[in-house]
């Protein structure tokens, strides 16, 4: 048997076939796959892309994509990435985690990590064994609905007030014209559907505050790339509410391996009196219960509108590790305590 080999690559493409095969073996989330990472790097990448790849017997056994800049190793994740972690079979996670410290970076910065995953345990063990100091902070609690019962039971759990309000708004909507709800997979007319959806998403406060998908060219490029990639895998789900054919509420989602991931949503405030966000969420959750979905993931933070539908959340954290050096100890103190003296010293030694 060939010994385990750990190496670093600078390109997603050269690893993609084995990477996708590995992701299929462990039923990885979409953002752990090469198509997502490549789209993210093209849109948001800075510094040097370093992909730690672990092979044995000619087969890829583990992979973790990283950005390296001035001795700092970072995850390929930001607020557009719902999760991040090591990709490997469970028995290989410890060896793959060694790749994080193999080149002795002065700081390791991994964002949107699930702290309860075995890969997170492997990261902690690897960096602590190498003498690194660790800080973990919660970034967000992401709501989800476990679709493990029947629709009527879940519906009743929402409470009579919410259901009554939904009926009233839905009735007003149907009186206003021809109402329709649709979910497209993007295999036809993808560009046109995205244009419609992104225009709806930008119609409200997101567009006003520059936070819509179409507000920045890199963000627009990213979601168009993700949409094309997801549609090729039959994972893309674009949901619309329409009145007389005109879209006024929109979801951009990925649905893979029995899990529905809500990535972006928005509605046109001109239709606010109909509570479009509430009606779209009701329709999508009803659909989840009828199509065999196991979990409906709202993603992002635990905003009040999401907590109308569930009280269960998943924690996402920022994992930081600081090298066992004088500079590393100063950086650790600055991030751990925010001490003025430590910050002044950082300015002297350089960031």
Provide a quick synopsis of the model.
By secondary structure, this protein is an alpha+beta fold. 40% of the residues lie in helices and 28% in strands.
Q: Could you please describe the fold and organization of this structure?
A:
It is built from 13 helices and 13 strands. It is α+β, with helices and mostly antiparallel strands and 351 residues long. The chain has 2 domains: 171 residues, Aminopeptidase, CATH 3.40.630.30; 145 residues, Gcn5-related N-acetyltransferase (GNAT) (Aminopeptidase, 3-Layer(aba) Sandwich). Strands 1, 2, 3, 4, 5, 6, 7, 8, 9, 10, 11, 12 and 13 form a 13-stranded mixed β-sheet that branches. Strand 2 and strand 3 form a beta hairpin. Helix 2 runs antiparallel to helix 9, helix 3 packs across helix 4 and helix 12 runs antiparallel to helix 13. The relative contact order is 0.14. The C terminus is likely disordered.
Distance between the termini: 44 Å
- What's the rounded overall pLDDT mean? 92
Topology pattern, helix = H, strand = E: EHHEEEEHEHEHHEHHHEEEHEHEHH
Query: Unreliable segments (pLDDT under 50, ≥5 consecutive)?
Result: 341-351
Shape label: elongated
Q: Cα-atom Rg, whole angstroms?
A: 22 Å
Count of distinct structural domains: 2
**CATH architectural arrangement of the largest domain:** 3-Layer(aba) Sandwich
Content of β-strand:
25-35%
Proportion of helical residues: 25-40%
Structure class: alpha+beta
The fold-level CATH name of the largest domain is Aminopeptidase
What is the H level of CATH, i.e. the homologous superfamily of the largest domain? Gcn5-related N-acetyltransferase (GNAT)
What's the total number of strands? 13
The biggest sheet amounts to: 13 strands, mixed
Total helices: the number is 13
């Amino acid at each position: 048997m060939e010994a385990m080999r750990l190496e670093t690559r600078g390109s997603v493409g050269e690893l993609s076939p084995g990477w996708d095969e590995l992701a299929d073996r462990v039923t990885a989330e979409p953002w752990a796959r090469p198509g997502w990472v490549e789209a993210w790097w093209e849109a948001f990448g800075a510094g040097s892309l370093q992909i730690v790849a672990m092979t044995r017997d000619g087969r890829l056994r583990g992979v973790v994509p990283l950005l390296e800049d001035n001795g700092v190793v970072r995850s390929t994740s930001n607020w557009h990435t719902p999760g991040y972690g090591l990709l490997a079979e469970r028995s290989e996670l410890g060896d793959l985690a060694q790749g994080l410290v193999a080149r002795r970076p002065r700081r390791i910065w991994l964002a949107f990590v699930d702290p309860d995953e075995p890969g997170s345990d492997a990261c902690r063990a690897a960096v602590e064994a190498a003498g690194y100091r660790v800080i973990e902070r919660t970034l967000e609690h992401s709501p989800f609905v476990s679709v493990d019962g029947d629709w009527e039971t879940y519906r009743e759990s929402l409470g009579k007030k919410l259901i009554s309000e939904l009926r009233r708004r839905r009735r007003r909507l149907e009186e206003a014209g021809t109402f329709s709800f649709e979910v497209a997979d993007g295999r036809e007319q993808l560009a046109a559907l995205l244009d419609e959806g992104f225009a709806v998403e930008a119609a409200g406060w997101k567009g006003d505050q520059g936070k819509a998908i179409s507000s920045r060219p890199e963000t627009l490029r990213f979601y168009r790339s993700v949409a094309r990639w997801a549609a090729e895998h039959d994972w893309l789900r674009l949901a619309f509410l329409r009145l007389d054919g005109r879209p006024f509420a929109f979801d951009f989602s990925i649905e893979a391996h029995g899990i529905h991931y809500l990535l972006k949503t928005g509605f046109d405030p001109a239709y606010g009196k109909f509570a479009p966000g509430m009606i779209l969420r009701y329709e999508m959750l009803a659909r989840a219960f009828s199509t065999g979905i196991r979990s409906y993931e709202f993603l992002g933070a635990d905003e009040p509108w999401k907590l109308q539908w569930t009280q269960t959340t998943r924690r996402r954290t920022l994992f930081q590790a600081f090298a066992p050096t004088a500079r590393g100890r100063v950086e650790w103190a600055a991030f751990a305590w925010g001490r003025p003296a430590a910050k002044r010293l950082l300015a002297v030694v350089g960031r």
